[in-house]
Design goal:
By secondary structure, the chain is α/β, with parallel strands linked by helices. The chain has a single domain, classed as SGNH hydrolase (Rossmann fold), CATH 3.40.50. The chain has 9 helices and 5 strands, in the order H-E-H-H-E-H-E-H-E-H-E-H-H-H. It has a 5-stranded parallel sheet, with helices on both faces. Helix 6 links the parallel strand 4 and strand 5. Helix 7 packs across helix 9 and helix 8 crosses helix 9. It starts with a helix and ends with a helix. 47% of the residues are buried.
Length: 266
Amino acid sequence: MKRFIAAACMLGWVLFPAAGWSQSTLTPVVKKSPVDMPQRVLFVGSSIMYYAGALQTHTHRLAAAATPPLILRDGFKSVHITTGALHHYPLEHYVTPGNLGGKEPFQLVVLGGNFRDVLTDSGRALYRKTVIDFDAIIKKHGGHTALYWLPPHGQPGGSLASAEHGRRLEEMTLAVANEVGALVIPVGLAFREAYRQRPGVKLQMGYDDYHPTIAGQYLAAAVVYGTLYGRSAAGNPYDYFGAIDKDTREFVQKVADETVKKFFSR
């Protein structure tokens, strides 16, 4: 897997010179959640979103542990296909009220994509087309689209391939989000910042340098929580039943809060 990513990114550098990706000039068009305190949210994405306790589970538990609490569990749903890309999902079925149990439409649908989307011209084009098509379906059913900015494959700075992969994910996600007017959830930026502040932090599993650890998924959930609800996770007592130590929990909470504020003030 690591060799695959490195080789694919090297191919990408031939197609798109690295200098052109050194700095992202894109800013998010949508500056806050289009829904105030959304109660019904659907998460769609591959194993990056359900690994290590599941993104939606950590998010609604953070909300429930907050002061004052937000009880969101019944309104949160998630669907996942291992290694799946967005175009593999029958989204029309998922967002039609009643098909996933709820009688009311989802207010927000979070689309996660796949880390491979960005590696080729055809992958980027298909991601863009799928988001445009899905955004129309989501709007038809009365909802809003949010795009999940994926973390890069491997620790930024650990290799040139990892850094380039992260830049490409940022460019692709923000460009498509701005095109359709979707909210961006800047998880990739939070991973980058956490690694910058604390290079030894373990946010991704060592066996593939991609799937999140508990700390990584907690960081992602704190970014989702801050983005969707305008609340900071800093000081939140939720620790996944003791699975994440106090120092790491407080660190990722702080990074999530800083990231959300920084991103939406671009």
